[in-house]
Amino acid sequence: MLCGVQGSGKSTFAKALAEQLDLVMVATDAIRQELTGEYGGFVASQTRQVLRLAKERVRSGLAVPERVVVYDATNATVPARRPFVLLAREQGAAVAAGYFETPLAVALARVRRRRGQARVPLHAVRQTYERFVVPSAAEGFDWVFDASGIDVETCARTLQGLAAGRAAPQD
Ligand SMILES: Nc1ncnc2c1ncn2[C@@H]1O[C@H](COP(=O)(O)OP(=O)(O)O)[C@@H](O)[C@H]1O
Ligand SMILES: [Mg+2]
């Protein structure tokens, strides 16, 4: 699970991981786009359907033995993350959280540079930033890592190990 505000670099990191290992990508922005033709919307009525589909896809991804599933969404709060931690646990899968502590100004500047629908409202970025809570092992994660400070190959290797039932790194 990747956690970070809009513009923190989650999808870029997810893409880099996908070049390193065979994974199933589940991204709420992509699902929202499939459903509505809009990227990164903030319409509450769409959220439940997006989340339902995200859960379905995570579940079916985890049904494949040793498959790494990357869940790319802001995942900013404990309540937002909890259903996915539980879902992974139910499936007997290990679950890791990679977080980005990107400064607000950096995230805003990146989002401002986007064009078209990817340019989400800046107030939404600020709102996510204010609510953001760094994930903790106490939430049930086997591994919590700073995604902005990790080498993508090391990360990919560790995720593959977790998916194969190996222990998480100690730190
Ligand atoms: N580590 C990084 N250093 C500099 N720019 C980055 C980095 N990661 C992502 N970016 C840039 O920031 C922007 C937002 O990244 P993105 O991965 O789409 O963020 P998110 O998925 O969290 O919204 C993109 O233009 C991307 O090229
Ligand atoms: Mg993204």
Instruction: Give the neighbour order of strands across the main sheet.
Output: 1-4-5
Find the count of extended strands (DSSP E, 2+ residues).
5
Form type: globular
Strand content: 5-15%
Number of domains: 1
Average residue-wise pLDDT:
93
Helix content: 40-55%
- Architecture per CATH nomenclature, i.e. the level-2 architecture: 3-Layer(aba) Sandwich
Query: Which secondary-structure class do the elements indicate?
Result: mainly alpha
Radius of gyration: 15 Å
CATH class category label: Alpha Beta
The low-pLDDT segments are none
Distance between the termini: 19 Å
Count of helix runs: 7
Give the cofactors and ligands: adenosine-5'-diphosphate, magnesium ion
Biggest sheet character = 3 strands, parallel
Order of helices and strands: EHEHHEHEHHEH
How would you sum up this structure, described in words?
With 171 residues, the protein is mostly helical. It has one domain (2-163): P-loop containing nucleotide triphosphate hydrolases (Rossmann fold, 3-Layer(aba) Sandwich), CATH 3.40.50. 48% of the residues lie in helices and 12% in strands. Helix 2 (28-36) packs across helix 3 (44-62) and helix 5 packs antiparallel against helix 6 (122-131). It is globular and about 40 Å long. The protein starts with a strand and ends in an 8-residue tail after the last helix. The chain binds adenosine-5'-diphosphate and magnesium ion. The site of adenosine-5'-diphosphate (ADP) has 9 residues, from helix 1. Magnesium ion binds at residues 10-11, 29, 72.
